[in-house]
Amino acid sequence: MNMRRVKQHLAYGVVGLVFGGVLTRIGFADYDELHKMFIFADLRMLYTFAGSVALTMVVYFLLNRRIPPQHKIIQPGTIPGSMLFGFGWAITGACPSLVFVQLGMGALPAVLTGIGIFAGVWLYRKAHSRFFGWDTGTCGV
Amino acid sequence: MTEYWPWWLGALGLGGVSILYLLLIGRLLGVSGSWAKVVAWKENREQQKAAETLVEDTEAMENAFMAETLAEFGEDAIRELQAEKEGDTGGKAADIGELESATPWTAHLVFLLSMFLGAFLVAWFNGQFELRLDLSDTHTRIFGSLWEVWLALLIGGMMVGFGTQMAGGCTSGHGLSGCARLLPASLLATAVFMASAIFLSLLMEVMIR
User: Fold this and answer.
1) Model-level pTM?
2) Do B157 and A94 touch (CB under 8 A)?
3) Counts of helices then strands in chain A (DSSP H, E)
4) What is the pLDDT confidence band of residue A72, given thresholds at 50, 70 and 90?
5) What's the complex ipTM?
6) Are the beta carbons of B138 and A96 separated by less than 8 Å?
7) Complete DSSP assignment for A59-116
C-alpha cells in the first residue's frame, strides 16, 4: 500500500468520524426527533437541514469553478426510487448514513436496517442490469 | 438526557461536514455512493487491478519501445524522443491521475465504519449512549412488539437501499450536495423523498391514534 492510498483512507476516516459525531449531536439518528420533524411537531431539524444546504451553497458559490462536476440527472428511477427511500426512511428512521449513527448510539436493531440496506443495494444492482439499464448517476463515481 | 444542538449549530456542523468532505476528498458528499462501492466490492477490486496493470503495461511497453529505438537509431533518437515527450507530459500525467483517482472500495468502507465510531464516541462521552433492543419509544409505539419492530427495520432498510440506488442519491448526495447546487434532479428527488416520508409518518401517526 502506497502513501497515496493511506492518505485517501485517512481522509475518508476523518470525515466519517466528524460526520458521525455531528449527526449524533444534531439528533438526526433519534427516531423520536425525526418523527417529530416529519409530522411537523418540531421543525428544529428541518431548519438544521435547510441551514446546512444554505451554508454549503454559499461555499460552493465561493469556490465556484473548483467544484467537481456531479452526474445527477432526472431519470426514470428518480421519482419511484425517492418514494421508496422516503417510505423506508419514515419506517426505519435511517438514511444510508444514519443507520451507522443509530448503531453508534446503542440501538442494536439498526443492524437489521443495515442488513436490509445492504440487501436492497445488492438487489437493485441485480435488477438494474437485468431490467432497467438506465443511468442513475449515483454519487461518488 | 442531553439536549440536542439548536438548529443553527447543527446547520454549521452539517454544512461544515459537507465542506470538509469536499476539501479533504475532493468530491461531493454522497453516502449512498459509498454503499454502492462497498456492496460491489468485488467488481471494484477487479477494476482497481485492471487500472493498475494498465499503468504497469504502459510503462513496460514504453521501456520496450525505448530499447527498440536505441537498438535501431542510437542515442540521439532517444534524446529527441525525450525532448518531445517533455512537451506533452501534461496530458499523460492527467491520464494516469485519472486512473488512480478511482477510490478503492476499502476507503468507502472506512468512511462508513468511522461514522459508526464517531457516533459511538460522541454519544458515549455525552451520556447519549443507550443500549436497547428497539429503536425508540415512538417507534415501538407505532410498530408494536419487538418482532414487528425488527421486521419493519429489515424491510424498511431494503426499501432505503433499493430506493437510494434507484434514485441515484440519498439525503446527503441529493439533499445536501445536489440541492446546494440547485440540480433539478436533486431538487426533485429531495422533494419526493421528504414528501413521501412526511406522508407515511402522518399516516402512521393517524393510525395509532
Assistant:
1) 0.84
2) yes
3) 6, 0
4) confident
5) 0.91
6) no
7) HHHHHGGGSPP------TTHHHHHHHHHHHHHHHS--TTHHHHHHHTTBTTHHHHHHH
